[in-house]
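Why do we care about 3D structure at all? Because function follows from shape, and shape follows, mostly, from sequence. That is the central idea of this module. The next example makes it concrete: a single protein chain, its amino acid sequence, and then its structure expressed as tokens.
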Amino acid sequence: MLTKFETKSARVKGLSFHPKRPWILTSLHNGVIQLWDYRMCTLIDKFDEHDGPVRGIDFHKQQPLFVSGGDDYKIKVWNYKLRRCLFTLLGHLDYIRTTFFHHEYPWILSASDDQTIRVWNWQSRTCVCVLTGHNHYVMCAQFHPTEDLVVSASLDQTVRVWDISGLRKKNLSPGAVESDVRGITGVDLFGTTDAVVKHVLEGHDRGVNWAAFHPTMPLIVSGADDRQVKIWRMNESKAWEVDTCRGHYNNVSCAVFHPRQELILSNSEDKSIRVWDMSKRTGVQTFRRDHDRFWVLAAHPNLNLFAAGHDGGMIVFKLERERPAYAVHGNMLHYVKDRFLRQLDFNSSKDVAVMQLRSGSKFPVFNMSYNPAENAVLLCTRASNLENSTYDLYTIPKDADSQNPDAPEGKRSSGLTAVWVARNRFAVLDRMHSLLIKNLKNEITKKVQVPNCDEIFYAGTGNLLLRDADSITLFDVQQKRTLASVKISKVKYVIWSADMSHVALLAKHAIVICNRKLDALCNIHENIRVKSGAWDESGVFIYTTSNHIKYAVTTGLLWKQPKHWMTRTAGKSWEKWPCCRGTTRLWKCAISVPKTLTNFPSCILSLAT
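And the structure:
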């Protein structure tokens, strides 16, 4: 799990991602609704009109609206641009557990402890249908993403699937009006109903807390107090239990399908989030908290992001890194995508698959080291348990068929990281954090005693950068001695300039730029995450944060003329600044250097957003 954002608050009972903006709504047990920007890690707004816990929360897909439902029996529809509640829907007679907007129709679906599910028209502000049939609290009810179906979960130990096509036809056909002769139960004078039970799914031994549809397949997932996660399949005539995922040791609070992979995520009052493989019905990953029970899960509709609410707040996380492993040499970029090693020519923009990678690892490639002399690559795979990490040594085929690339036999061994240190030698940091030097046959040629480190990076022929908790050390592998060291905590990326004269060390919120001898030239601190960086051919270091592109130069008036990509962005009218050739309109320039270093400006290029 990669935690992207975390909050501390009262118990979080409801979560909803905004479909387009980097926002998330949290509804709290103390009655407050919070609106967070999870990219900037800031609280945008909070809404406090409910009396008691707020359990249901949902963003509208197109309008600047969200809906909430609480223990005060009220459903409130809010406009986050106007920052106020627009109206309140009354009708439920007990706590409201979930509230969801329909993806297309002007409907809200609510589930309540009064044993009913209600459909509301938020435009006419009326209840258009009441679904009755459960004989205990209804803990959850959700619309199907594409069809006229509703799924509900109840403490009566059942999951029900409802057909609401009659409701759509009566309320949304051309010229239709909500008939005065039809009561709010949805039964008209002729006995037909707007919503009927299509399937009743029985199989759980305790009350069911959550049920959700698969986004594309005819599947349902449910989680219950019997500690089980069940998968159900349905067709037009029937629905049946497919399998059960066992592993939680307390009530399962919530379970959702991964939008794009064959995975299920569930969380529980046992203080864990579990990831299940749908095809094998086995646990893939488990994430635990020490003191906080989990209550709710949400999946982002478009991005590989999830959120989980617990007793002490909530977390926004990814299951795995999406950044591909890559290596640049000259005008060639090698990178891994979909179990292929691909090659991109910067000059011609030709992008071809050069090799198929061997299967067998369930984890994506974490990083890559490329050897241009031997046309070989080292691909490192980082397991959730670091001791199970491996690397693969491949020689790239010379005449690759891009339509049907070869799958050469690689040499796989255990190791945290593997990095080339010479034409025919590479270094491996093994699971015991000792350094091994190997040849092209993947044979150990020698072992090297190194200072304590948890990661190694390339530093030119015969050298390595060693990372520990609070520094980076330049180490000579041949002479087996430390050459230099610089203080920086938890470096994530090391980026060398083309001539190896400068290096940028990137941490979560800091950048240190050094020369070849690891003398620190500049320290840059950012309040938000540093994401990536690259050296321009002129010696300019360009880097990105979560919401800016920025740059730093190692000398004063470096640019004789604007770069073509800057001209396109900022126009051709440029002012001259003493630190660098400056900026207009979208570009904002600021000097950020230590007092003793006046020759190293750091300039901010604000994105036009």
